[in-house]
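Thread: Newbie trying to understand structure tokens

Hi all, I'm a second-year student working on a class project, and my supervisor (Dr. K.) asked me to get a predicted structure for one chain before our next meeting. I've only ever worked with sequences, so writing a 3D structure as a token string is new to me. If someone could post the tokens and maybe explain what I'm looking at, I'd be very grateful. Here's the chain:
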Amino acid sequence: MTERKSPGRPKIYEKKEHQVRFQKLVYLKRKESPSGQLKISDMVRFSEQMNQENLEEFPIAYNKDAWSVYGRIYIEQANQISLTKIKSGKGKKLSEVPNFSQIIEIHGHNKNKLIEYFLPIENLLHQQLDENNELVEEIGELKNKIYELENKVLRYEAMTLEMAHHSKIKKYRDKYRLADQISFSKNKEVLNQMDRLNDFLEPKKVSNAESPSTSEESIVEDNNPFFTKWKEKREKK
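---
Reply by user tm_fold:
Sure, no problem. This is what the structure looks like when written as tokens:
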């Protein structure tokens, strides 16, 4: 009794170089035809075409038997429904969304199969809508809290200004034990500084001709008016 041999030339087609060619031919065919199901007959014709167009890269035109046994796995992989992972839900859970076009092309005649694929997606959409509605409500509540806090800050600002104003009046100081916050006599130095504020912010520029040649470090310290003013204030304390 003779042993039944596999179709094609198994000892050759099982080699890695042929497996790579099978895989590449399927890849090129899928790139040429992104949608629809790939069939063995399609790959036989495409293999012959590539053999004629690029003999060096595809020296063999694989026949039906070769594709049926050694190239089928790559055809089946190419025909699988592609999935896209998206983050959903508050916990950012990963969900897989299938390619609808592929589903319809493959299972358009099978109502039960379509329901099997589409029902989980329908449930996911309802879940997303419920979570979006909850987020809209939470955003509305946060906006109201922000509005309340802003009004509270404005009230505190008004109260602070009113206290500062009343602190100037003796009867309010005695009644509410307020410290004199805007006494001009106690803040004479501050007022004098405010009178000289323009000189402080816009000091007279020294011409380059008058300024002596100094190192870069001394230029930063000595010719910087803000730094000089700051040192003077520190020395007076």
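A couple of things are worth pointing out once you decode it. Residues 188-236 form one domain. The chain is about 65% helix and 5% strand. Feel free to ask follow-ups in this thread.
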